[in-house]
Write a structure and sequence with these properties.
- There is one protein chain.
- The protein is of the alpha/beta class.
- It has three domains: about 200 residues, Spore Coat Polysaccharide Biosynthesis Protein SpsA, Chain A (Alpha-Beta Complex); about 70 residues; about 160 residues, Rossmann fold (3-Layer(aba) Sandwich).
- Helices cover about 40% and strands about 15% of the residues.
- The strands form two sheets. It has an eight-stranded mixed sheet with strand order 3-2-1-4-7-6-8-5, with helices on both faces. Strands 11-10-9-12-13 form a five-stranded parallel sheet, sandwiched between helices.
- Pfam families: Glycos_transf_2 (PF00535), Hydrolase_6 (PF13344), Hydrolase_like (PF13242).
- It is found in: Cytoplasm.
- Belongs to the GmhB family.
Length: about 500
C-alpha cells in the first residue's frame, strides 16, 4: 500500500532550546511535499510560548505537557494526531534538505508488517582536533538502533503497545524499550534513506556525572525485557562491571581503615586507585588531552563508578515487581446520568444538567494527556414517551457546554423490551463509538455507575470501571472487577495506567 507524506505527521518534543529554531528553519526551507502537520510538544513546566511561525512549514500545532519528560511529550504528540504515520524528530537535529522527499520515499510501499522506519544520523566531529569524551559519546548515535532522533512509526503500532513507557523519565532507553515492545508484536522495524545531522550539544564539564542516572533505566529494561535485552536492542554493556569492582574496592578500603587494618586497607585503596586511573586514561587517551579535558576526566572518573553503582542499586530497589507498560487507553467512554452529571430520572431539561464534583477536572485531565473522551447513554425515556430525542440532544449540548466537547456521543433511545443491540448492557454503543473513532475496544475504558455499564464494556472487549452511587445495587458493586469511589479516582486510576 502506497503511503504519501500527507498521511504522516511530524512530532517534535522540545524544552525550548535554541536548536529548535535551527530545526524549524531547516524544515521551513526544505523543498518537497509537506506532511499533514507539525506538532511541537512543549515539555517545559513554564516559560514563554513557543513561536514557530515560519513561511514554508506545514500546519503547526503547539501542545504543552507542563513538564513530564520526553516519553510523555511524545505520547501526547502522537495521541493528538490522526494520520497513519507519526515521524518523531528531536529538537536538536537538523534534517537534510531532501528530508521531506526521502521520508515520503522511505514510507511508500512498506509492507503491513513494518511498523517503523528509522532515519540515518550523522554526528559531525571537529576536524582540527581529537574529539572530547562527550563528543565521542554523542557520535555513538550515528550507529545506534531505533533512536527517536528520527524515527517514524505507524500510529496503530504505537496505540497497540501504549506508546512510550513514561516510567523512563529521561531521554534514555525509552526509545529502545518502545522498539522492543513493537517488535514483540511480530512487527518489523527498518532503516530508511533520509538523513539528519545531530550536532554535539554544548554541555558543562559535569554532564558525565548526571548521565549516570541512566543506570537505573538499564535495570528497568532488564526487568521488562529479560537478560538478553542488550543484544536485542543493540545496547553494549559498557563499564558497569568495572564500576562495581572499583566501588567495592573503595568501600573495602574505607571499611578496613575504620577496622584498623591498615595493610589490607592500603591494598584495597591501591586497587581502587588502579581502577580509577585505568578508567581516567581510557577516557583521556583518545581525546584532545588539553588541560581542561584532562582535569575534567580526572575529576569525573573518580566519581563516576560510585555514581553509576548508586543509580544501578536505586533501580534494583525501585523496579522490584514492575509490570509491563500498558500506557493510557485511546478512548474513555462515560455513562452520562449518575456518572458525569447528577441523576434526574428521564431528565429533558438542560437546566437540571448538574455535573458531579470534579467532573470537568477529570475529563480535562484525560484530554490533556491526549486521551479521547466520549459518552454512551441509555435514554429509555424516549421510548416510554416521557422525553423527546430533541430534549435528550439539548441536555447533551448543555453537558458539552459544562464539560467541554466529546469526540463521540452515543445514545440509545430504546426501551428495555425493544430487543436492540445498543442499550447497555449490550455492547452496541461501545462498539459504535470505537468504530466511529477507529479505536480498538481493547484500548477503551468505560466508566459508569451501574452494572450495565461494566457489562457493556466487557461485551465489547473494553475495560469497565464502576463508580457506585447510592442507587447502585450491592450485587453490582461486588461483581465489578474494577471499582473507584469517585469519578476523580476512576480517572486517576486510568491516568496511572491501572486499567
Amino acid at each position: 500500500m502506497q503511503v504519501g507524506i500527507a498521511q504522516c505527521s511530524v512530532v517534535v518534543p522540545t524544552v525550548g532550546r535554541p536548536s529548535l529554531d535551527v530545526l524549524l528553519d531547516a524544515l521551513a526551507q526544505a523543498p518537497g511535499p509537506r506532511p499533514a502537520e507539525l506538532v511541537l510538544v512543549d515539555d517545559r513546566p513554564a516559560g514563554e510560548p513557543l513561536r514557530p511561525e515560519r513561511p514554508g512549514l506545514p500546519p503547526v500545532r503547539v501542545l504543552r505537557t507542563g513538564g513530564g519528560g520526553p516519553a510523555r511529550a511524545r505520547n501526547l504528540g502522537w495521541r493528538s494526531v490522526r494520520t497513519a504515520w507519526v515521524a518523531f524528530l528531536d529538537d536538536d537535529v537538523v534534517p537534510d534538505p531532501d528530508w521531506y522527499q526521502r521520508l515520503a520515499e522511505d514510507l511508500a510501499g512498506l509492507p503491513a508488517d513494518v511498523a517503523g522506519s528509522q532515519g540515518r544520523v550523522r554526528v559531525p566531529l571537529p576536524a582540527d582536533r581529537r574529539p572530547t569524551d562527550w563528543e565521542r559519546g554523542t557520535a555513538g548515535l550515528a550507529t545506534s538502533s531505533w533512536i527517536t532522533a528520527d524515527l517514524a512509526y505507524r500510529r496503530a503500532a504505537l496505540a497497540a503497545v501504549g506508546g512510550f513507557d513514561e516510567r523512563f523519565p529521561r531521554a534514555f532507553r525509552e526509545d529502545s524499550d518502545l522498539a522492543l515492545r513493537v517488535m514483540d508484536t511480530g512487527a518489523r522495524l527498518v532503516r530508511g534513506q533520509r538523513c539528519i545531522t545531530h550536532p554535539v550539544r554544548p554541555v558543562d564539564r559535569w554532564v558525565s556525572l548526571r548521565v549516570q542516572a541512566g543506570n537505573a533505566d538499564d535495570v528497568l529494561m532488564r526487568r521488562l525485557h529479560g537478560p538478553d535485552w542488550r543484544e536485542r536492542a543493540d545496547a553494549p554493556l559498557g563499564r558497569r562491571p568495572q564500576h562495581l569492582a572499583v566501588t567495592a574496592a573503595g568501600l573495602a578500603a574505607a571499611g578496613l581503615a575504620v577496622a584498623r587494618r591498615p595493610r589490607a586497607a592500603a591494598l584495597a585503596a591501591l586497587a581502587w586507585a588502579a581502577g580509577t586511573g585505568e578508567f581516567a586514561w581510557a577516557r583521556t587517551a583518545p581525546g584532545p588531552r588539553d588541560r581542561a579535558e584532562v582535569t575534567t576526566m580526572l575529576a569525573t572518573s573518580a566519581l563516576i563508578p560510585q555514581l553509576a553503582t548508586w543509580h544501578w542499586l536505586r533501580g534494583v530497589v525501585r523496579h522490584v515487581g514492575v509490570r509491563p507498560w500498558r500506557g493510557l487507553p485511546d478512548l474513555v467512554l462515560f455513562d452520562r446520568d449518575g456518572t458525569l452529571v447528577r441523576d434526574f430520572p428521564y431528565n429533558g431539561d438542560p437546566a437540571f444538567v448538574k455535573p458531579v464534583p470534579g467532573a470537568r477536572e477529570a475529563v480535562d485531565a484525560l484530554r490533556a494527556r491526549g486521551v479521547r473522551v466520549g459518552v454512551v447513554s441509555n435514554q429509555s425515556g424516549v421510548a416510554r414517551g416521557l422525553i423527546t430525542r430533541a430534549q435528550v440532544d439539548a441536555c447533551t449540548a448543555r453537558l458539552e457546554e459544562l464539560l467541554g466537547p466529546f469526540e463521540t456521543v452515543q445514545v440509545c433511545p430504546h426501551g428495555p423490551d425493544d430487543g436492540c443491540s445498543c442499550r447497555k448492557p449490550a455492547p452496541g454503543m461501545v462498539k459504535a463509538a470505537c468504530a466511529e473513532l477507529d479505536v480498538d475496544p481493547a484500548r477503551t475504558v468505560v466508566i459508569g455507575d451501574i452494572g450495565a455499564d461494566v457489562e457493556a464494556a466487557a461485551a465489547a472487549g473494553a475495560v469497565g470501571v464502576l463508580v457506585p452511587t447510592p442507587v447502585t445495587r450491592r450485587a453490582e458493586v461486588e461483581a465489578a472487577p474494577r471499582r473507584a469511589a469517585t469519578l476523580t479516582e476512576a480517572v486517576g486510576q486510568v491516568l496511572a495506567g491501572d486499567w
